[in-house]
Design brief:
alpha/beta, 12 strands, 370 residues, 15% strand, 2 domains, Aspartate Aminotransferase, domain 1, binds pyridoxal-5'-phosphate, globular, Aspartate Aminotransferase, domain 2
Length: 370
C-alpha cells in the first residue's frame, strides 16, 4: 500500500466517523480561547533594545540574561527555589516527566490528564497506574500496592492537573493527604490556574499552600498570561538536573529574548491584577446561574464550563449553531475526551460583561432545548 493510499484511508475513516478536523479562524465573541484574564487586550511591550543572542539552545549561545530575570521572578512568585523556561507547556511536561521518572519507578496518573502528560509518561517507561478521575479510593489502592515491598531505589510519583482543562473541575484536595501518607513525589500541571488563583495569581498550589508538598509545578504562559512559552517551578537541585539531563530543554532553540521582556511585562501586571482574578470567578458564577435558568447542566462550576452532550454530532451541530449566532464556542470530541462524551467547552473570561454572558447562556439553552 502506498503512503497516499494509507493516508487517504486514514482521512476517509475520520470523515466516516465525523472526526475529520480542519482549522477554523476565530469568528464571533470569544468563549473558546484560554485567555481567562482577558490579556489579549494588553499592549505589547515596546520593542526592547536587546542584544541579539543568535539562535541557539539555552546551553549554548541562546541563553540571554533576560531569562535569568524572568526565572528568578517566577521562582519568587511561586515561593519556589527555582524555575526553568521551556518552549511550551507540551515540551515542559514531556521533558520534566521523562527526565525525573526512571524505569523501575512507579507513577500514578489521573485518567483525564493532558496529552503532554500521557506522552511524557510513555517516554519515561516506568510502571504506570492510571486512576479514575479524582477517585481517591482508586488512587489509594494503586499507591498502597506500589508502596508494598518497595525497593529503596524505587520512587513513587503522582501527576495531576490542578484544574482539568476539559472537565472544569479542580483536583480533589484530599489527594494532598495521600501524597503525605505514601510519601509520593507529586507533580501538578497548573496550565489552567496560572494567573487565575491564589492571592497573587500564582495558581492552585499556592492558593492551597501546597508548595512544600509538591516536587514541581508546570505552568504555561499560553493561557491566562497570554504570552508564549512555559516553565517548571521546582528546587534548585531539580533545575540543575533538567538543565543537564532534560532532552526537551537541551536540544531545542531558546525562545527569543524579546519574548522574555514580554514575560517580565506580564508578570509585573498579573501579580497585582486582583480585579481580573475576582472578575473571572464572579463571571463564572453568573454564567452557571444563567445556564441553570435555561435548563443547561455543566459538569463543574469553574471558569471552564464543560457541557457534555454525548455523540460527536450533537456537539458539532450545537457548536455550529452557536457560531452562527455569533458565539465562538467549539465542540470537543474524542480522542481529546473519552468516547461518548463529546461536549461544548465554554471558557469564561474576566472581561466578559453580564449581558454577553446572559446572551451566550440563552443561546446555548435555545440550541440545546429548542
Ligand atoms: C493541562 C495542560 N497542560 C499542558 C498544556 C500544553 O501547554 P502549551 O499550550 O503551552 O503547550 C495544555 C494546553 O493545551 C494543557 O491544557
Amino acid at each position: 500500500m502506498s503512503l497516499t493510499d494509507r493516508w487517504t484511508g486514514q482521512l476517509e475513516e475520520l470523515r466516516r466517523l465525523g472526526r475529520f478536523r480542519g482549522l477554523t479562524p476565530p469568528r464571533g465573541i470569544d468563549f473558546s480561547s484560554n485567555d481567562y484574564l482577558g490579556y489579549r487586550n494588553l499592549p505589547l511591550p515596546p520593542e526592547a533594545e536587546l542584544p541579539r543572542t543568535g539562535t541557539a539552545s539555552r546551553l549554548l549561545r541562546g541563553h540571554h540574561v533576560v531569562w535569568d530575570e524572568v526565572e528568578s521572578k517566577l521562582a519568587q512568585w511561586h515561593g519556589a527555589e527555582a524555575a526553568l523556561m521551556f518552549s511550551s507547556g507540551y515540551t515542559a511536561n514531556e521533558g520534566l516527566l521523562s527526565t525525573v521518572i526512571e524505569p523501575g519507578d512507579c507513577v500514578a496518573s489521573d485518567e483525564f490528564n493532558h496529552a503532554s502528560i500521557i506522552d511524557g509518561l510513555k517516554l519515561a517507561k516506568a510502571e504506570r497506574f492510571i486512576f479514575r478521575h479524582n477517585d481517591l479510593n482508586h488512587l489509594e489502592e494503586g499507591l498502597r500496592e506500589a508502596s508494598q515491598a518497595r525497593p529503596p531505589q524505587r520512587q513513587l510519583f503522582l501527576v495531576t492537573e490542578s484544574l482539568y482543562g476539559m472537565e472544569g473541575d479542580f483536583v480533589a484536595p484530599e489527594i494532598a493527604g495521600l501524597v503525605k501518607k505514601y510519601e509520593v513525589n507529586w507533580i501538578v500541571d497548573e496550565a489552567h490556574t496560572t494567573g487565575c488563583l491564589g492571592r497573587t495569581g500564582a495558581g492552585f498550589v499556592d492558593h492551597k499552600g501546597w508548595r512544600d508538598q509538591v516536587l514541581a509545578t508546570v505552568h504555561t504562559g499560553g493561557k491566562a498570561l497570554g504570552v508564549h512559552g512555559a516553565y517548571v517551578a521546582c528546587s534548585r537541585l531539580l533545575r540543575d538536573i533538567l538543565v543537564n539531563r532534560c532532552r526537551h530543554f537541551i536540544f531545542t532553540t531558546a525562545l527569543p529574548p524579546r519574548v522574555g521582556t514580554w514575560w517580565l511585562d506580564v508578570l509585573g501586571w498579573v501579580e497585582a491584577d486582583k480585579l481580573a482574578r475576582r472578575k473571572i470567578h464572579e463571571n463564572a458564577s453568573h454564567f452557571h446561574a444563567a445556564l441553570e435558568r435555561h435548563g443547561v447542566k455543566s459538569s463543574a462550576r469553574s471558569y471552564i464550563v464543560s457541557i457534555v452532550l454525548g455523540e460527536d454530532a450533537s456537539a458539532t451541530n450545537a457548536a455550529k449553531a452557536l457560531q452562527e449566532a455569533g458565539f465562538d464556542i467549539r465542540a470537543i470530541r474524542p480522542p481529546t475526551v473519552p468516547e461518548g462524551t463529546a461536549r461544548l467547552r465554554v471558557s469564561i473570561h474576566a472581561d466578559h460583561d453580564d449581558q454577553t454572558l446572559d446572551s451566550a447562556a440563552e443561546a446555548i439553552g435555545r440550541v440545546l432545548h429548542p
